[in-house]
Design goal:
There is one protein chain. This protein has 596 residues and is of the alpha/beta class. It folds into four domains: 84 residues, Gyrase A, domain 2; 158 residues, 3-Layer(aba) Sandwich (Rossmann fold); 95 residues, no CATH class; 187 residues, Isoleucyl-tRNA Synthetase, Domain 1. The protein is built from 21 helices and 13 strands. A four-stranded antiparallel sheet has the order 1-2-4-3. Strand 3 and strand 4 form a beta hairpin. The radius of gyration is 29 Å and the shape is globular. The two termini are 35 Å apart.
Length: 596
């Protein structure tokens, strides 16, 4: 289904061409003066220079040529040369009705050329709990994945676990000090290792920080951890078995926590999965003359003549031969190209890591790990700050665990929902339903609070504002959806069924037409949100749509309308609005309850 703005541009362009002007001048945009018109065309202003005449003379010709066109209610030429356009209510109603018939897509066509896209949006370290620093990558990445899938692409989400390096050795050595009798530390043992891990997730989450602290104060402990890491990477059986336990226990807990965020990954790959690709990759870089020794380290130059600032070489191996994040990321690219041959790899990471990704992407291209057709993109996001404007912390200054933050918001949301029900004297909701509803709405509050900001910008995490039922918030969007569900349920109770096939009639009021205009922008918005990988555009759209619906609702007697055809048209419009809103919140990664 053609985008509304494209259909309007097509009609205006025909008249420009018919009058001898270049088609490029027929471009139509949304009006920046909605008090005057709905759409505008400023092509006459630019065309005047090329055709050496006053712009209003061109605008007058185009307005005259569009007179009588069934698409428009009015076309007005305004000096010095603007074209102000208003759609005919009949045309707009037919467009919106066609959207309604296109169930699930609502006029948004899937791409004709689907791409394979990998989204790398996890990055948690095993043996450590998720904290608030993991929130933005998970929320933004999940939405980017869902938007891509809605547009018809094959999008693969990868958690990309931090499961390699010294942290594994630290855990092994600390576990050995605590439980030296474990069979994993007996090098002469040749039997099968236990299937059950010798620690719980709680114990594991204590082992790592304890070991990390010791390594900073005790050189012997750190040396032992380095040795354990080396032996693990060389394939020592007992340590490999311990690594499997660490991964199983950690991943089980990570899946639970990500599930609470309604985030899921197709791949649970880690840095360790890329390690087998490192030796051949390093050798290739050496053999082809890309990599050379500098101050004991193996590096690849990635600076370009056009650089406005210094771009340091990409370090492939440290002086002791150890891998770095850059090594792992490059080897992971090798693995992904081999396994999935993606057209695009998108990374979600803090904006402060931008230099790392510049180096890695340039190195991957220069050394031929990817060709020029593969897109490598870093979505660098800003920080989540407290009300003091500084990175979000606990009251004692520590980094807050993610599940504690979610619990806090769930409690705040439950309190507000309970107060809301008491105020309405709506006491038929059980405590259990109230808790489940609070959980759904709290997730919307968190996700919308994050996603409504442009990813690259910092934002203030304000629980009070995010959980409000008023303003540009997740709960406000959900409250609007629940309001529509309530109206539809009442109509169904009185009539027996919803008017699935009833046509949407031309608008009877300005508020109804504004709602239709907002609905008609859905397909263009979704395409734009995908092209720019910008979930905040979906948020801006549904906030506008919710506002337009509420304006229509407050000004229209929907359920008491006596004309059956008009009432069915109203209900059809509500059904479409609900479906579009629910489609949008689904790509943002949350859902709406049936009542609040």
């Amino acid at each position: 289904m053609k985008k509304l703005i494209d259909a309007i541009t097509e009609e205006v362009t025909k008249v420009f061409v018919a009058n001898g002007y270049d088609e490029k001048y027929g471009k139509v945009t949304l009006s920046n003066r909605p008090d005057l018109c709905e759409f505008q065309c400023n092509g006459a202003m630019a065309a005047a220079k090329e055709y050496k005449c006053a712009p209003f003379m061109i605008a007058d010709k185009i307005a005259e040529g569009l007179t009588g066109n069934a698409m428009f209610e009015s076309v007005e030429s305004v000096k010095p040369g603007f074209l102000n356009l208003k759609l005919a209510p009949e045309y707009l109603a037919s467009y919106v009705d066609e959207m309604k018939q296109d169930a699930g897509r609502f006029g948004c066509e899937k791409t004709q050329n689907p791409k394979t896209i990998i989204v790398d949006y996890g990055g948690p370290n095993v043996a450590k709990p998720l904290h608030v620093g993991h929130l933005r990558s998970a929320i933004i990445g999940e939405s980017v994945k869902r938007i891509g899938r809605f547009m018809g692409h094959n999008v693969i989400g990868d958690v990309h676990l931090g499961d390699w390096g010294l942290q594994m050795g630290l855990i092994i050595v600390e576990l050995k000090e605590r439980k030296p009798e474990l069979v994993y530390f007996d090098e002469s043992y040749t039997g099968e290792y236990p299937q059950e891990a010798p620690f719980t997730i709680s114990e594991l989450e204590d082992i790592y920080p304890t070991a990390s602290g010791k390594s900073k104060e005790d050189e012997n402990f750190k040396a032992a951890a380095l040795q354990a890491t080396h032996e693990l990477q060389q394939g020592r059986r007992g340590y490999q078995a311990l690594l499997s336990h660490i991964l199983n226990v950690s991943v089980t807990d990570l899946k639970r926590n990500y599930s609470n965020l309604n985030v899921d990954f197709d791949l649970w790959k880690g840095e360790s999965d890329a390690q087998p690709y490192v030796p051949d990759m390093v050798q290739m870089m050496k053999d082809k003359g890309f990599a050379y020794m500098s101050d004991g380290a193996l590096v690849v130059d990635v600076a370009e003549e056009t650089d406005a600032k210094e771009i340091p070489p990409c370090i492939i191996l440290k002086s002791d031969g150890a891998s770095l994040y850059s090594t792992t990321d490059l080897a992971t690219i090798v693995m992904r190209m081999k396994d999935y041959n993606p057209d695009s790899i998108i990374y979600l990471a803090d904006a402060r890591q931008s230099m790392h990704f510049i180096q890695v992407f340039r190195c991957a291209r220069k050394t031929g790990l990817v060709d020029e057709h593969v897109e490598l993109k870093h979505i660098g996001f800003g920080t989540m700050n407290g009300k003091d404007g500084k990175p979000f912390k606990t009251r004692d200054g520590g980094v807050m665990r993610l599940e504690y933050l979610l619990d806090e918001i769930n409690e705040e949301m439950l309190k507000k929902i309970t107060e809301n029900q008491k105020a309405k004297e709506n006491l038929d909701i059980s405590d259990e339903e109230a808790k489940e509803t609070a959980k759904v709405v709290a997730l919307a509050a968190v996700k919308y609070g994050d996603l409504s900001n442009q990813a690259s910008k910092d934002y203030v995490f304000d629980i009070e504002r995010f959980t409000s039922f008023e303003g540009n918030t997740g709960p406000y969007i959900l409250y609007t959806i629940v309001r529509i569900k309530s109206i539809l349920a009442k109509y169904k109770d009185s009539k027996g069924a919803l008017p699935e096939q009833a046509a949407i009639l031309p608008a009877h009021s300005e508020s109804e037409k504004n709602l239709m205009l907002a609905l008609a922008r859905f397909n263009a918005m979704m395409e734009n949100a995908y092209e720019e990988l910008a979930p905040h555009k979906v948020c801006a759209y549904i906030y506008e749509l919710a506002n337009e619906f509420n304006g229509f609702y407050h000004g229209t007697k929907i359920l008491s309308e006596e004309d059956a055809a008009v009432q069915q048209s109203y209900i059809g419009l509500l059904m479409l609005t609900k479906d579009v809103l629910e489609t949008c919140i689904d790509v943002l990664g949350f859902s709406a309850p049936d009542r609040m």
